[in-house]
Amino acid sequence: MTTSARKAFLWLxxxxxxxxxxxxxxxxxxxxxxxxxxxxxxxxxxxxHYGRTVSGFGFGLTLLGFLAGSGFLPNSKLALxxxxxxxxxxxxxxxxPGEELAFVFFxxxxxxxxxxxxxxxxxxxxxTGILKCLxxxxxxxTAVPGMYFGQKYLLDELVINPSSGEDRLLAKNIALLKSGLxxxxxxxxxxxxxxMGGRETPEAQTLLSLIGAVAMNAEPFVNSIMxxxxxxxxxxxxxxxxMLVDLDEKYAQYQDAGANFxxxxxxxxxxxxxxYGDVPSRAGRKVDEEWSRMQAELDNSxxxxxxxxxxxxxxxxxxxxxxxxxxxxxFYKSLGRCDTRACVNKHQEDFNxxxxxxxxxxxxxxxxxxxxxxxxxxxxxxxxxxxxxxxxLDLFDNLQGDRxxxxxxxxxxxxNRVVEIHIPSFTESxxxxxxxxxxxxxRAHSSVIQEVRNQLAGRGxxxxxxxxxxxxxxxxxxxxEKANGERxxxxxxxxxxxxxxxxxxxxxxxxxxxxxxxxxxxxxxxGDDIYISGWRWDWSHEAFTRQVVLPRxxxxxxxxxxxxxxxxxxxxxxGSLEELGKSAYRAxxxxxxxxxxxxxxxxxxxxxxxxxxxLLLTGGHRYALIASKVAVLAAATLIVFAPLSIxxxxxxxxxxxxxxxxxxDSSPAVASLADWTIRIExxxxxxxxxxxxxxxxxxxxxxxxxxxxxDESSPTRPVNLPDDYAPELNANLxxxxxxxxxxxxxxxxxxxxxxxxxxxxxxxxxxxxxxxISVRLLQFVRENT
Length: 785
Hints:
The protein is mainly α and 785 residues long. The protein contains 29 helices and two strands. α1 (3-35) packs antiparallel against α22, α2 packs antiparallel against α3 and α6 (165-182) packs antiparallel against α7. The protein is elongated. This is Peptidoglycan binding domain-containing protein. The chain crosses the membrane at residues 56-73, 78-96, 102-122, 129-149, 588-618, 630-650.
């Protein structure tokens, strides 16, 4: 072997060792998921995807091994190139979402590689390094999707989809039996996982992974468990033990969830409620603030009004000075010389023009505006010739009685007439308010009241129609009404933003929890599997068990019984339970196929890797090559036959041996593969388990068996009960009943316990008084002791 070939071969060995590590990791992951009683369909699907990807990797390396044996590997300088291509091929399946990218990636890349190989073969046949590299990549990229999709097709189209409704129904029941074995609810004769070391040992996990396939092919055993009475017993034991196990832990989780709800929900509601409740106290201060503000605004408005009135008076004095006495005297003297109406009208027009040119905003008055009638004394004096005023007896038409008019009148009268003439224009310019009102008159004026009402309405205060600025109580009511409206609107917005939906204010804690939307939130938090209507967060341990756990047990039993009572037609293609049946069938068959292949590939690869390392160290010497092939052949022989001499507690148990013999009659291949794997897998599994503890992308339940078995709070398996007893409770709850009825609290239901229970039932009026322990009796005991 040349130095260049040795380096290229070294890369192949390194990739082989990497594959071996990945294969062991997958093997342990599959073992953990397949043996778990709570594995989901999604986990089974993910681990299948993982397995097909790893198989493609291994198959590709196998083909490259044949190429290497023929000396067809590129030199070491191109090793990184074909190595990167190999990693990319595997990565497409492992990291790409779904399988869509693979359907595009491999045909496109494969076409490109095929074109390059053809081109180089024709144009540059001497460039063997690149040609070999491309052939290696093309081989690997063909092997990976070929194995991946080939496995998928074979499993789906030749195993899962052709399965009958009877097969799927049987798989559903076998899965239930497997769950019962896993959580110590049932035992197959002396095959008792808890007594034999627990379910976390590699031996137990291997048995749990493969027992389903063995049991499905053990026809006499199948006939026994398909009996409705037997299945109902298994259902009751499995469902109850699954729900009643770790009650303290479930209650602690309930309390933790309640504390989180208190923090994330109740406290938020309480915070907003406090802010909502503080508004009325703040509204009292707001009343005083708003009242003082209104009074100040009124005072300022009155000051402006008073200033305008004063200015109006000054303007009137100035105007009076302009027309009295000269202008009015001339006007009336001119009128006195008129002897016709036309003359009077002409002088009136002249006066009007002069008035219009003045600063007055009022229209010009008629000629009598600044006159006054004679008093009695003036009239008497005029009769004896003493009156010296201007008389217009013959000119004016508006004489009244025998009295005459004095034009113009005295200064005060004229001034007052000037003011009176201009009051309407002032009133109009000041918004309807006449001049010279007192402060009380000003506040009581309708225009002032309306202005204040408009201002307050702009600030959101709604006042009654009869309100005046003197009515503080009505004002306070309006402030409170506004504050309450604002707090209601703020409450609606803030509580909706904080919680995602509206809740009315002022709810007590229990009223809050009882709200429909709150119950929906609780349902989402705790899950549909345990939520009940009218959920509370203040249940005691006993109340939680009674209200939540026990009803869920009954419902779980009903659901399981309903499923196994379903006719096989419902599990057939097109039936209502088709997908459920396929999932159960897949969960039973995939482990025996995948675990066996994975284990065989891992062992074969390990032997092959050792052989390859020897070849590298010896330089590919002829005798070393022969020796390595002999070693591989010998290892293959040992892999097939050596496990027959390997035993463990489960393979030696009478129950397993009987199941195995029954399965050999129906399906020798499945029984033989399962037996081979059950014997050898526990030896190899710990290596992969250590890897999974470090990297666990699929969430496999890798549990330290020693720590769980040593845990004092670990669940107690159900007791072995008489044949005529329908087992419903585990040993802890049997002890609870025993204490209540005065029997020895040993958790074992026997004749003494049955007698004590019957006596207690008769004394306390429980019907039927049959001495049997049931969930109903447990509830009755708790309510009456």
